[in-house]
Design a protein that fits this description.
It contains 6 helices and 11 strands. The protein has 2 domains: about 130 residues, no CATH class; about 55 residues, no CATH class. Helix 2 crosses helix 3 and helix 2 packs across helix 5. Helices cover about 35% and strands about 25% of the residues. A 5-stranded antiparallel β-sheet has the order 7-11-10-9-8, with helices on one face.
Amino acid sequence: MLTHVPKTVCIHCGVDLETVKSNKDHVPSRSLLSGSPPPDLPVIRICEACNSSFSSDEPYLVSFLGLIAEGSARVNKKAWGHASKVLDSDFRLQDDLDARLSVVNQRDGGQRVAVEPDAGIINRVIEKNARGHIAIEAGLTARSDPKISFASLQSLPPAGRELFHKGPSWRVVEPDLYRYVVITEPILIVRAVIWEFLATEAMWPA
């Protein structure tokens, strides 16, 4: 169910912001951008508890993308320096991602290193930004949970990539790092491309 969201309500949990501590949150997350994000990057007020709950999720996604960027020429590496700093400062995160690394044999006889991320963590970051986008763009909030999906943009077949990009004009937050589109009819969908690698979608069925 979609409703118009007053600015005094947290878009994530629905708590009255006048009754709890709150923080300003950037949409999208600044950690997904370069060290010099746009000065007009939108902000939205959310409760401190929700803001804190995302504090470890965002570095995880940045680090995952950083590992991909380090080993692939097809991924934009503009923000790799930030990802490297995140990994260097968090040994627990390093251990977690190292445990998810595997060596994949390729048809040509070669090998490549692959990483299988924690989908739950990535889904939470996607949903967080999607809820921010619909609140800022359309003044809406959704009480139900969205259906989240993500994949590498390059893995989509040509027809799938065309369908993914179909709809209103996309908004570019920072070239090569983050762009998105909000579709409100016939159902609410937020699509984004992060680092020109990760294609994401949050969809709220009617």
